[in-house]
Write a structure and sequence with these properties.
With 402 residues, this protein is an alpha/beta fold. The chain is built from 14 helices and 14 strands. It folds into two domains: 2-179 and 372-401, 3-Layer(aba) Sandwich (Rossmann fold); 189-369, Glycogen Phosphorylase B (Rossmann fold), CATH 3.40.50.2000.
Length: 402
Amino acid sequence: MNILYIASGIPVPGTLGGSTHTREVARGLAQRGHSVHLVATGRPGWQGLAPFSRPVSSPGDGFYLHHQDVPKGLALLGAWPILRLAQAIRPDVIIERYYNFAGAGVWAARRLGIPCLLEVNALIIDPPAVFKRRLDDRLGGPLRRWALTQCRWATRIVTPLHTTVPAEIPRTKIVELPWGADVARFTPPDQEGTSAHDQPPTALFLGSFRAWHGVVDFVQAAVLLLERGYDYRFTLVGDGPERPAAERYAAAWPGRFRFTGAIDYEQVPAELHQATVGVAPFVTRAHPALQAAGFFWSPLKIYEYMAAGLPVVTTDLPPLNTIIREGVEGTLFREGDIVDLAQAIMRVLEDQPAARAMGVRARARVVAHYSWQRHCIELEQVLIAMSKMRIIRSVTASDDQR
């Protein structure tokens, strides 16, 4: 198939979770033999109203990368260039990554009579606690109406959890599909000739230092363990607004905490190889949308921990507690309970043979169920079904005209 993939405002290449997701989907579909044109931004932030740059083929990834550096909040201003690109490459299907102020791909697909897949990775309608929702309500709901219009125009909607999509949209249109890990890039350390077994037990946190990621809870739990005399090390990979608070808690224990800051995606596997356990202490109370719709984020960091052969400590809430099963691929703790989090980390670090066995099982589980490769196979099946629907409708319309 010839696929046009619109990811307005997502930097590719980039270090954001959305950057990883977008690139992996484009690359995975291309590896399955499809011609993929990805429209993304060359860099985040305000770029000015630039048109498409000349299409550039992404080296080694097999897809065509088109940079459209329109400010993310004004993504719809890129609608006409996207329509012209679609007319030029004549895709069989358009995929659009949903964003409040986007929708150019859905619009172009409707104008051209092309099937469209709307890819939803966050709550489409914000809860009342979010300022953007309150502002939209005061203005009469233009964002809500446009969001519902995109859902209705889309042929299918793919999302990790169906509650991201408003109840007005039929559930039969929705396909639940989790994200994944690149199981070829993220491998257990023994496959790379390195090992963390001879080092002090190390717990690692990877991700955005935002309140709902629980980075401060992680550091506070680590301090509890250090105060109890455990000889552990703690690595924190990433950056964000919660970093100063995390560093303040860690300051009393020099040499026990290592903050790497934001690093290139290519460096992440090496960091995971130095760890004994990966920790994902999500806190939904810090995120109104997660409180309203459940944990709809597909937990990229957990999948990458698992692919690297690490046991995982994460919050005991669905669907996290169906990905990581207590005592099988890792351990679970009560959300927001620092003491319980510390005990969960300790249970893994104090039993190294059991930790390695959990890591082996975690690797097997992510390969079987939560890889980007698996994601793209299932996504491909949805796209093929959409394409067949178009052919059937075209034949039916032709017969009717006769």
